[in-house]
Amino acid sequence: MTEESNVQFSDREALLFHSEGRPGKIEIVATKPMATQRDLSLAYSPGVAVPVRAIAADPATAYDYTAKGNLVAVISNGTAILGLGNLGALASKPVMEGKAVLFKRFADVDSIDIELATEDPEAFINAVALMEPTFGGINLEDIKAPECFIIEQALKERMKIPVMHDDQHGTAIISAAGLINAVFLTGRELKDVKVVVNGAGAAAIACTALIKAMGVRPDNVIMCDRSGVIYQGREQGMDQWKSAHATKTDARTLEDALDGADIFLGLSAAGALTPAFLKKMAKNPIIFAMANPDPEITPPDAKAVRPDCIIATGRSDYPNQVNNVLGFPFIFRGALDVRATAINEEMKIAAAYAIAELARQQVPEEVAAAYGGRTSAFGRDYIIPAPFDPRLMEIVSAAVAQAAMDSGVATRPILDMDAYRHSLRSRLNPTTSVLGLAYEGARAHPKRVVFAEGEEEVVLRAAIAFRDGGYGIPVLVGRDDVHARLSALGVDNPESFEVHNSRNSPLVPAMVDKLYERLQRRGYLRRECERLVNQDRNIFASLLLKMGEADAMITGVTRTYAQSIRDVRRVIDPAAGRTPFGVHVLVGQSHTIFMADTTVNERPTSEELADIAEGTAAVARAMGHEPRVAFLSYSTFGNPPGNWLNPLREAVEILEKRGVGFEFEGEMAPDVALNPKVMANYPFSRLSGPANVLIMPGLQSANISAKLLRELAGDAVIGPMLIGMEKPVQIATMSSTASELVTLAVLAAGGIAR
Ligand SMILES: NC(=O)C1=CN([C@@H]2O[C@H](COP(=O)(O)OP(=O)(O)OC[C@H]3O[C@@H](n4cnc5c(N)ncnc54)[C@H](OP(=O)(O)O)[C@@H]3O)[C@@H](O)[C@H]2O)C=CC1
Ligand SMILES: CC(=O)C(=O)O
Ligand SMILES: [Mg+2]
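Above are the sequence and the magnesium ion SMILES. Below is the predicted complex in structure-token form.
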């Protein structure tokens, strides 16, 4: 359990995260249909012979006919796994899988992890060099110094694809970017600063070399390893890479070295910096404690001794995350896109300045919102952009691609840089950023969320994750044994969870009054209301929400959707003037489709359809998409004619009259809405591109389509989200997983699902 940060999770949760469903974090997905005999003949023998011959005749065509051009290997031997040390190739696999998914998530680079069981540099080099045909780039990871220097150098010489040791250069680029800004903010200049580097391994040596190349004076840098200061003349535990940074100094320990230092760069191990040592540092000290997973010193410990410091760590749960995740995805994206033969100094420096500059620009609204209580403008707690900043991909990758072209290593230069920037922007799905931001926002403004079904294991796991993730305070509804169930799930302090049991809740009399007041004129007797409050968890939970005991509510795992919404609506009304409805959100790598009304209105009227369109467009906007709404039908603009088309046509007219600020069109068939080639047959259509908001004509088609897609499509599905109620209440599906419940809770608490 991590103590001081605002993200906490148990070891059990971390293991469950990795083992749940398909073990591990990656799978391979085919990009071509494999449905028919013909598909198979094209994909494999005999069709595959044609690209084989083409590549044999012209190797460059491998980039056209195979996945090579977008494929990066993350390769390790596990000799320096994060700051955990040499735990072997197999144990490094979770980290390497993690790097592979970050490549995909942040820069749409396909990546696979490779763990090589050897500590012999020669064997490692030979194995990797042989893989050149497979990959577009090689990301070396967590290989200890000094072997990493020999390995990287040899592979760069032998391979014609970009090779980068991330722990060296990824880290150097990001820490340089952070340092440029921290030095600026404290009114210093690189040429004057005194730096202490703790650690003399892969990351430390590369970071030191880069800051010296950028203007820090070599005699102003003292490097330390486990034996203390690396001074000129030291003999113990030296090698040629450490010797290159040996300084003429009387300091012998880290504590001596820090006397008067401006900057501490930690690339060593957890807890390596004793708080008291900081007292000797100069005014406004800059402390980069970058060891992972636990830093050399935590921000609270550092601030306790030096409130005047700027502190950064490698972790996402404190401000100022200086971590190579900000670099490697975008550096390789840019390098792959120009088919660079190497990642050279020019590309690294361009990346460092691009990242530093980005932190100084105005923070976009969605990022600012996510930072919530923390500082969101350039300053001491925001010296470097967050990894989920949606602008990184465009700005850093474009800078790297440009530098590759300018320095002559690009074999396929980009001709139209504006078009390239645009393609980078559209390559990622804004929904994934918004979800990341919604989670951050929830942490910044934790809310109380009622989980109505507090006796269900999946709900309890969601509540634990919700609380331990720092997203809010779960309020559980259940009988006496909820704490015991939490304990059985590995929670150390189950009593710390707030549990409401209607059998002994002091709120019951007031709840009965409230419910009776609402239902007496719907034919309910007081004793029926008493029974509902005492026995129906949805009624009880809804009353907690209604009476302000919580900010949002989640239910739906134990009852059908129809039953749950009937229960909830006995207590919670639609928001004034709104039509409640359900939205399913289908999330692909680069697209998101919002489909409504999938859960509430069986035969919506034209007014209701118009309301649903407006409400869904608002959800799309909140999730980072400019809405393009299509009213769907089997018929396109009246062909074929039918009896069911009028409400759709009238809904379009109503939106026209309302003068809404988004594109809408209808009625049309789904292929017209989604496929630009088919839409081209209707040049008068007011949609400027494929629709992303699909308004369905009725509940039958909507609910069937949403469930079919959920079961059959590759896209991830969020929801259904219930929109238009007076309070944020969400009804999950009975098959929901714990993480789906957490997402719904975060979206409900954060006001996106509203
Ligand atoms: N935030 C980020 O983006 C990144 C952070 N890192 C972190 O940097 C650290 C080092 O990684 P890496 O360079 O790949 O590993 P290496 O194994 O190559 O180097 C480790 C270095 O740390 C030194 N060291 C270990 N413990 C101490 C200590 N208590 N005091 C002083 N020096 C110590 C070692 O000293 P000796 O030479 O005497 O053995 C060695 O020089 C790890 O914690 C890693 O997580 C790495 C990459 C990126
Ligand atoms: C972040 C990283 O690569 C490391 O700590 O090793
Ligand atoms: Mg690493």
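The longest helix spans residues 166-185.
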